[in-house]
Amino acid sequence: MTEIAPGRARGHIPVLADAVLAALAPRDDAVYVDATFGAGGYSEALLGAARCRVFGIDRDPDAVASGQALAEKHSGRLTLIAGPFGDMERLLGPFSPGPIAGIAFDLGVSSMQLDEAGRGFSFRQDGPLDMRMSRAGESAAELIARLDERDLGSLIRALGEERFAGRIARAVAAAQHRRPLATTGELAEIVRAAIPRREPGLDPATRTFQALRIAVNDELGELDRGLAAAERLLMPGGRLAVVSFHSLEDARVKAFLRRRSLPPAQTSRHLPGRPGAEPVRAPSFRLLSRRPVRPSAGEIARNPRARSARLRAAERTAAPAWADA
User: Fold this and answer.
1) pLDDT (tens digit per residue) in 51-80
2) Residue 122 in contact with residue 187, Cβ under 8 Å?
3) Strand order in 78-82's β-sheet?
4) Coil, helix or strand for 250?
5) Are strands 31-34 and 100-106 parallel, antiparallel or unpaired?
6) Nearest 5°: CA angle at 271, between 268 and 276?
7) Strand (E) positions, the chain?
8) pLDDT in tens, 256-277
9) CA quadruple 238, 244, 247, 248: dihedral positive or negative?
10) pTM of the complete model
């Protein structure tokens, strides 16, 4: 998710803001969904670009509470909803929003969460080992306590893409045996000591913290549910814009849109169908560009956290949503 300087909330410029607006092409009297409201950057940009209505969704109750000032500023045009974006159909249902012209996703941890030590997301600040975006469910400390060494290593390898996952898991398990880990500072120091070689410009704890955060919040499962919900909700001609910050997210978005934008394979009507073959379905999306949009050097200089951002965007066709979405 978009990350901003510590202490800022409202009025910030989100990552790839101009590119997201260009993809969504906001227009008067249309309805848009900011599926990851965060600090409200995309919502505010949409509201300023057209006389439209925006529904902002966030699973973090703190984000919804702090966004009330922006909702009051745009009275009647911004509605904030607490909940995970994977449930956006259910969350939007009571509001009867009508046809939805655009949905934006800004994935990952927000700067407000990252910069607040008490939320437990940052390896640069000492705080409780929490990492829960919604402040509910199993914390990172509880997850570490539950997993054995092998499962923890598999998690760090798969979700953090960390090649030293086995060494890290052994070190964490040994420390956990002596005393249950409770703070981000403890975990970060253990991970740094376990990694034999460091990459320039990358804290050794980065990938382990990413893996635990993704697991605690089921971020990849939530992304799958959110993309499928967006496919069902968008009107024909509606736009989808997704900003991701690491390869696991981007690969999932790319695969989803690529699969749904390819023309159906040509088969002979005289040949029998193969058992278990995928049904022929019309494309539900049209890609707006074949390659992701990346931040400029100037944007990265202003906000170094934007350096890994990737935007993928597509337009909804009139074809039905895919049945397995």
Assistant:
1) 999 999 999 999 999 999 999 999 899 999
2) no
3) 78-82, 53-58, 31-34, 100-106, 234-244, 310-316, 285-287
4) helix
5) parallel
6) 105
7) 31-34, 53-58, 78-82, 100-106, 234-244, 285-287, 310-316
8) 999 999 987 655 555 555 655 5
9) negative
10) 0.90
